[in-house]
Amino acid sequence: MKKLDKPTSIQTHQIHPFPPLYNAESRILILGSFPSVKSREQQFYYGHPQNRFWKVIAAVFGQPVPSSIEEKKALILSSRLALWDTIASCDIVGSSDSSIRNVKVNDLAGIMSGSSIRHIITNGGTSYALYQRYQQPLTGIEAVRLPSTSPANAAWDLERLIQAWGILGSWI
């Protein structure tokens, strides 16, 4: 009897599970693509322990690396940043951006009207492509694509990421 191979990659429909983070003082919107499995479990942004996002933001703003969700929120808001994702819902395998299908994008109208956003940054190529296609025509703000802080982006070490993301500090 031949063993049946177990499927290793099952695409599931996911809905973005948590709200954007911003306030009236937020000047730069950082858009990711869609939360990773770990982020969905934690119900907050960049929850995978190998993602370098929090180390990069802390270094750019000269702050200690936050560990709790409350510390992460405080770092973002005190730095006049906002966090959200381009995707509201999609079909995805695990955390893989390359598997994303059947995308519905987030409506940025609320975050734009409730803040002082002047710049939009995308964390990687998937977010950038979706923003350019669906959201930039509505916001009128050209996004800047920065290299992904994901552990899948092994071509960029932490020091190079901090240097590239340093643009945030000059815009505040």
In terms of DSSP E residues, the strand content is 15-25%
Pairing-aware structural class of the strands and helices? alpha/beta
Q: How many strand units?
A: 7
Q: Helix-strand pattern, N to C?
A: EEHHHEEEHEHEHH
Q: Which sequence of strands runs across the widest sheet?
A: 3-2-6-7
CA distance, first residue to last residue? 65 Å
Structure description:
- The chain has 172 residues and is of the alpha/beta class.
- It has helices at 37-42, 53-60, 69-78, 109-113, 125-139, 158-165, 167-171; strands at 11-15, 28-32, 81-85, 87-93, 101-105, 119-123, 143-146.
- It has a 4-stranded parallel β-sheet. The chain has a 3-stranded antiparallel β-sheet with strand order 1-4-5, with helices on one face.
- Helix 2 (53-60) crosses helix 6.
- The longest helix is centred in the C-terminal third of the chain and has 15 residues, at 125-139.
Set down the secondary structure blueprint.
Blueprint: E1 11-15, E2 28-32, H1 37-42, H2 53-60, H3 69-78, E3 81-85, E4 87-93, E5 101-105, H4 109-113, E6 119-123, H5 125-139, E7 143-146, H6 158-165, H7 167-171
Parallel strand pairs: 2-3, 2-6, 6-7
Antiparallel strand pairs: 1-4, 4-5
Helix pairs in contact: 2-6
Jot down its keywords.
single chain, 172 residues, alpha/beta, three-stranded antiparallel beta sheet, 33% helix
